[in-house]
Design a protein that fits this description.
512 residues, alpha+beta, Alpha-Beta Plaits, 13 helices
């Protein structure tokens, strides 16, 4: 197959390509390249569904391209961040997603738009919980599959199922359990069509040579409710879920599962096809050397879980490299407060010779991944942030007597950490940056006018404000843009409101 695009666009270099490819600033319109010829409108729409409402679609089949419009820029940013470490596949082919130069799609007078609009309507009626019958008319089936593994000679983990079934579309949720002494799972796709393709392709296949046979049927459920993210259940659209109690970490169960020979003998070799985002340090876990094995099952928990990385075993990836900062205004304290929304920041270092760059050391790898997936691509002081994992294991403090103009700060014992207490409510309230902020710890005498004035004093526009009905200590405030909200949060989190009350500010998932 000849590539007319530059060399960087093909698979091997897609990592580098994704990071550097587009100076485009975030837009709610996404440009999707290299789509296979026979792909349907609803398959393209299903790429965007886990991240929010899809409002428009334009297919350019002759060019193997499509444009997808999301309801909000935040949804588009979350989607691009999710698919950057985990290349999505449609019909077994990798597709590439980037921000478009277009701010919205105008498709009213274009020919051939009827099918796209019909697909959008069908999907939206499913999403809004509209009449199930009409929504399901797409395939007449549920997006949820019930999977039974027969003859389980080797243990089958949630990760293995994810890798195999992701081949056929975006997997939203998986719940595994044992019933009648059989290992079973419920798996929800973004789109009933994905479920249909997966069932027809995988029913009756063996995961490992001559054992672990898959029996697949459509579930009566149309949606799964996942309470915990652990090795038994996972909701890939919600990184904020607790792990539940006493669950073993993934690495031991996974290590056991992968002492097994040949995963899915052909034709599904390479069922996952993910480029490893972060490999496990124990090299022995890859099953690549096994004949007939599912090729790229090198264990990359980050690739498997996308945004929700179970990298508890890897202390080395807790330092982030933040680039494209505005060197004239950036201070370590600002990065400490902003990154502190997604985890406890231990140290921040703005690089002495390149002040556009900084290193941020988080408490652990999961928090680093959370901060990276939520903040990469956001705007701060007029610049679009670029965030990657740093190769440094830790941020070094300057040696005694060496002054570095206050560019390196140690926050290890800061009283402002949000996640010190295990099981803290803050873990459940982690949301992407949004124009609406959640305020708490407001003393009784402070009025809405006081708070509006306070926020306006940081230079932002206050569009709406409302106290919580049941609890006047909390309120929502909506500002002019996501960037204004980010700046206001940095400036006003921990602001002293008097009476020994310090304002707590976080991003809200609600609008006013």
């Amino acid at each position: 197959m000849s590539h007319s695009t530059p060399a960087t666009a093909n698979g091997n270099d897609s990592k580098k390509f994704k990071g550097d490819r587009s100076p485009c600033s975030p837009s709610r319109v996404l440009h999707i390249r290299k789509i296979p010829n026979e792909v349907t409108e609803s398959e393209i729409i299903s790429l965007g569904l886990p991240f929010g409402k899809v409002t428009n679609l334009l297919m350019l089949k002759g060019k193997s391209q499509a444009f997808l419009e999301m309801a909000s820029e935040e949804a588009a940013v979350t989607m691009v961040n999710y698919y950057t470490p985990v290349t999505p596949h449609l019909r077994s082919q990798p597709v590439y997603i980037q921000y478009s130069n277009h701010r919205e799609l105008k498709t009213d007078n274009l020919p051939n738009q009827a099918r796209a609009q019909a697909a959008l309507q069908a999907v939206n009626s499913i999403q809004s919980g509209g009449p199930g019958v009409e929504g399901m008319a797409l395939t007449g089936q549920s997006p949820v599959l019930r999977i039974i593994v027969e003859n389980p000679f080797y243990p089958v983990t949630l990760e293995v199922l994810y890798q195999i079934f992701s081949k056929f579309g975006t997997v939203l949720k998986i719940i595994t359990f044992t019933k009648n002494n059989q290992f079973q799972a419920l798996l929800q796709y973004a789109d009933p069509l994905n479920a249909h393709h997966a069932k027809s392709a995988l029913d009756g296949q063996n995961i490992y040579n001559a054992c672990c046979t898959l029996r697949i049927e459509f579930s009566k459920l149309t949606s799964l409710n996942v309470k915990y993210n652990n090795d038994k259940s996972r909701d890939f659209t919600r990184i904020d879920l607790p792990t539940g109690d006493g669950q073993p970490t993934l690495d031991t169960t996974m290590a056991a599962a992968f002492g097994a020979p040949g995963i899915i003998s052909s034709p599904y070799a390479g069922a996952a096809g993910f480029a490893p985002a972060i490999g496990f340090p124990q090299a022995g876990l890859s099953v690549q050397g096994v004949p007939g094995a599912l090729g790229p099952l090198a264990l990359t928990t980050s690739a498997i879980t996308g945004r929700m990385v179970g990298l508890t075993a890897m202390p080395g990836h807790s330092v982030l490299l933040v680039s494209n900062l505005n060197p004239d205004v950036i201070l370590p304290h600002g990065l400490f407060i902003l990154f502190g929304v997604y985890g406890d920041v231990h140290r921040v270092k703005i690089l002495f010779n390149k002040k556009e760059n900084a290193l941020v050391q988080m408490a652990d790898a999961t928090q680093a991944q959370l901060a990276m997936s939520h903040l990469n691509g956001q705007r701060l002081h007029g610049r679009v942030l670029r965030i990657t994992l740093s190769k440094h294991q830790a941020v070094q403090l300057p040696r005694e007597g060496h002054e570095d103009q206050g560019l390196t700060k140690d926050y290890t014992n800061s009283p402002l950490h949000r996640f010190k207490k295990p099981g803290s409510k803050n873990f459940q309230n982690i949301f992407p940056p949004s124009a609406t902020l959640h305020l708490s710890n407001i003393p009784p005498l402070v009025t809405d006018e006081d708070l509006k004035r306070l926020f306006a004093s940081t230079g932002c526009t206050v569009k709406a404000f409302k106290f919580f009905q049941k609890d006047r200590k909390m309120a929502l405030i909506q500002l002019g843009s996501v960037e204004e909200a980010i700046l206001a949060l940095i400036e006003l989190h921990n602001h002293d409101l008097g009476e020994n009350h310090h304002l707590r500010v976080s991003f809200s998932k609600s609008m006013i």
